[in-house]
Write a structure and sequence with these properties.
This protein is an alpha/beta fold and 153 residues long. It is built from five helices and five strands. The strands form two sheets. It has a three-stranded parallel beta sheet, sandwiched between helices. The model has no long low-confidence stretch (mean pLDDT 87).
């Protein structure tokens, strides 16, 4: 007999600042190809940045991937009416970590003030990572009694 799990809350975070292909072309000095070339090659019309582009870069050490993940996680927990201390575990799913040997799952565990006995695991995966994490989490819940887990992807 198949058992199922329930998604109790969902959270997303996107920076407010929209960056168009025109701005990217201007900042990177590739005006000859133009913004339509970017759409043609990638399908991307705009993206979201937290900080302005300067010298062809949009880097701010205070605005890293973990900050966005934390913001989305807090929104998801609020949506689920669940404190972080009520979680049994956390999966952090990404293929764009800031460091080669990433510790984003444990960093997020600390930032959310989760219980010491709650696990923090990381899955280095791209597009399919969320689905993989849901499947693994379901198996863990069925097998060892974890009840509430957060997936940040």
């Amino acid at each position: 007999m198949s058992q199922s799990i329930l998604i109790q809350g969902v959270g997303t975070y996107l920076p407010d600042r929209v960056v168009t292909n025109e701005e990217i072309c201007h900042e990177l000095g590739v005006g000859a190809k133009g913004p339509d070339w970017i759409v043609e090659k990638t399908g991307v019309r705009e993206r979201r940045f937290e900080v302005p582009i300067t010298d062809g870069k949009a880097i701010d050490p205070q605005m890293s991937e973990i900050v966005f993940g934390e913001r989305a996680a807090k929104i998801a927990l609020k949506s689920a009416c669940l404190p972080a201390t009520g979680l049994d575990g956390l999966w952090y799913v990404s293929c764009t970590q800031d460091e080669y040997f990433s510790q984003l799952a444990t960093q997020l565990h600390y930032r959310l003030r989760m219980r010491d006995d709650a696990y923090a695991l990381e899955l280095n995966s791209g597009c399919g990572g969320l689905i993989q994490a849901i499947g693994i989490t379901r198996d863990m819940m069925m097998g060892n009694g974890h009840r509430r887990c957060l997936i940040v992807a």
